[in-house]
Design brief:
The protein has 676 residues and is an all-alpha fold. The chain is 62% helix and 0% strand. The protein has 37 helices and no strands. It is found in: Cytoplasm; Endoplasmic reticulum.
Length: 676
Amino acid sequence: MPPKSKAAAAAAAEPVSVEDLFTSLHRHIQAGDSLQAAKVADQVLKAAPGDEDAVRCKVVALIKAEKIDEALAAMRAAERLPIDLSYCKAYCYYRQNKLQEALDLLRGQEETVAVLQLESQILYRLGRMNDCMNSFEKLKKFNIDSMDLKINIIAALVAAGRASEVQATMKALKVDLTTRALRDARSFELAYNSACSLIENKKYSEAKEQLDLAKRIGKEELMVEDYSEYDIEYELAPVSAQLAYVQQLQGQPQEAMQTYVYMINTKTPGPNPSSIADTSSLAVATTNLISLRGTKETADSLKKLDQLIEKSTAPNRLQLIESLDFKLSPRQKEALYSARVLLLLHTNKIDQAHELVSALLGIFQDSVFPVLLQAAVHVKEKYVQKAEEVLRQYADKHPENSKGVLLALAQIAANANHFQLAADSLSKIPDIQHMPATVATLVALKERLGDSNAAASVLDSAIQWWKNSMTEDTKLDVFIREAAAFKLGHGRDEEACLLYEELVKSHGSVEALAGLVATAARSNLEKAEQYEKKLKPLPGLKGVNVESLEKTSGARHVEGPQDMKVDVPEEVKKQKAKKRKRKPRYPKGFDPANPGPPPDPERWLPRRERSSYRPKRKDKRAQVRGAQGAVTRETTAANASGSSKGSQTTSSSKAPAANTDQPKASNKSRKKKSRS
């Protein structure tokens, strides 16, 4: 290596001024070279220790270079300096998924645009959607015309269960969802979030249109940026998964299943293959695929689901892969864990299901779904009373969040013939007492308990609710009709008559009028005759003398078949007489002019039953068993008993035969005996 010149050595030894270093730092920042900017910031700090601008530049450059740990180390080194780096520290914690620590650092900070945006993102990941929307409401005051902000606001509304507010919010934010506007904005995420809101509102056809639009615009955007085919599929995996979900909801399970299987199984080509979908989309596709399969292919479904969960030796500890905990919404995580528990129950892995449910009870302490899963495990073990007790305790402790628990308790109790508990559970859900399914179930349960008065009270309460309701889709006529039929069947004729009369006055249907006449005839004959006049006469009954018909004794029962003489019109007789003659069909190659000899009339009989059958002669020659010249035991026994058989009388020949159901020796045993 040649020695350095004295000029180069002098130039290297000469210190660079701070102004020149900041100029170099600015140049690297403008070029987007974050790592080099951080190195220059270090040089500035060596020349001017504690410089606030240099410290901030170094921290921000490390964050942009994805060096989060080094950025935190730089901030810890500057803790003694009078520099407030709380926002940068909170952002680093947010990137490390230390969400609560990040949120604590933002408290007390001035509510700037950056602070409110970071706070809203943290609250969104924590699942605190209402607080997230409060942060977005504060951001609106700054009049920020940012497409990213609009996208995040719509996403937060959908996640918070406020999808009905999305359309009004988009109008307030002046969001244009036309194809041209979305292309100009270069944002397929907006169409995707709008589709999610339509799915929540059960507008599946419109949602599919928005998703198709999002996929088309997304492909155009990514192709302009020179993304490869597999990279495009990776970026648009959430859209593909949502499209398959819409197909699933629209009753197209095969199409949806094909998309899910393709997303899960397809890998990119090359030495290091990877999935064409991100982990959150894989989790959604896997969970939805399991729901479509049901109890089929449970082993394969469990294997696919296990790939999303990290294995841990610690008891009652659950961890999803690649920080999936922070990428999935609470509803998505509940669906994933519920699918795993149900698969374990289907495969009879009860112990593993118990362990998983115990872990879920510790992680989701304020959620209802682990309680439902715990009850499902007890039912699988046939510990129905344990399941009922678990659900009853939760319902008593959390009455405001117990609707699903009470419905599950009612179903389990009804299946176990605990009808009183099932009826009590349903009665504790006030907002469904007027629904047809609830009323029908309660009436059936009360009848099983033998309490017809309580069943009638349930029907009366439902009728009163629908009378007071102002809804357009009223079910009042249905309930009045069912209540009248119920009371008529239980001997409450007057009440049934009043209900039918009310139904006739309000709707005037023929069925209600007929029911009123039949019911009133039991208790109030005058009313029955009054309403009977409103019934239209039946055709064909004018020539029938009702009085003479009533005087007859009625139809008599005659045993055995009887010939009924029916007058057939002449036209029908002529039609029957005119039958078209069809030509006979002959076998192939048969000549009717030369038929040949007639076929044998006994050709359809078995050969043994034909007159020409002659059985084969039996070979009456003696059959000798054993070696040549040997004397068998049977022959010896026959010779020894020959004289005694000849001296028997005719009465001994008529003795009953011995039992023939005796085991027979095999051929091998006979051969061994003969050899001996």
